[in-house]
Amino acid sequence: MSVSRIRPRYVVTLPRSLRRRRRVKVGDNVVWLPVSDREFLAVVLPSDRYQVLADLMSNIELSAEAKLAAETSYFSNAGKKASR
Amino acid sequence: MPVVESEFLLALRANDPKHKAALGIFRKYPALEVCTAAFLEITWLLRSKNKRPNDISLILSLLKAELEGRGVAEIPLTTSQIARAHDILTRHAMTFFDALILANAEESHDRRLISSDNSFDKTGTVDRIPLK
């Protein structure tokens, strides 16, 4: 566990142990999601987000045929799970 | 302000044929809205390709961060819109998520939808701006 102090203008330094473990780089983005009054979930997003999106969604297409096939497949599987 | 949907979200990929057009939309329209239904459609497309939940979570976070960073407002999905989507489906041949996106976009301020998909023209309830 690491502890950081909130400095003026609410600046917080990411602890070195986390920086090393997660390969966080200057320029990356952090998305803050509120969890409770005193808890946040911080998601680190890489700065080259367009390329990351390309890598993660490399085989996704939006043609009418692809959408219909995926919709049929997805709802069919969801129906099977619900009927178990 | 115009509304963007799934096609635009996919065009944020660096290698997408419409990537430059999507960045051009950011420049042309300083104020945009995005359909929550488009995030649902992207999620469903990813799940149908057996993408891992943590990858889907990262993709949605990346898309949301990009849009929030550019001040794009999200149109929340409501029960009325889900009912409206099914009303659209009874009258027009389109996929469930297209109907949901359309119902979602109908709630926008000026009902202009940025999309190359002409199936959104069927109801005549939104003006479509092609993404090009």
* Percent of residues in β-strands of chain A: 15-25%
Q: pLDDT under 50 segments of chain B (min length 5)?
A: none
What Rg of chain B do the Cα atoms give? 14 Å
Structural class of chain A: alpha+beta
What is the N-to-C order of secondary-structure elements of chain B (H for helix, E for strand)? EHHEHHEHHEE
Q: What is this structure, in a nutshell?
A:
The complex is a heterodimer of chains A (84) and B (132). Chain A is 40% helix and 18% strand.
Please, could you describe this protein's structure?
- The complex is a heterodimer of chains A (84) and B (132).
- By secondary structure, chain A is an alpha+beta fold.
- Chain A has helices at residues 16-22, 49-56, 64-82; strands at residues 29-36, 39-45.
- Chain A is built from three helices and two strands, in the order αββαα.
- In chain A, strand 1 and strand 2 form a beta hairpin.
- The longest helix of chain A is centred in the last third of the chain and has 19 residues, at 64-82.
- In chain B, 52% of the residues lie in helices and 11% in strands.
- Chain B has helices at 6-10, 19-28, 36-48, 53-69, 79-91, 96-105, and strands spanning 3-4, 33-35, 73-75, 112-114, 127-129.
- In chain B, strands 3-2-1-4-5 form a five-stranded parallel sheet.
- The longest helix of chain B is centred in the middle third of the chain and has 17 residues, at 53-69.
- Chain A binds chain B through residues 29, 31, 43, 45, 48-54, 56-57, 59-60, 62, 64, 66-71, 73-75, and chain B through 6-7, 10, 12-16, 19, 41-42, 44-49, 51, 55, 58-59, 61-66, 69, 95-98, 117, 119.
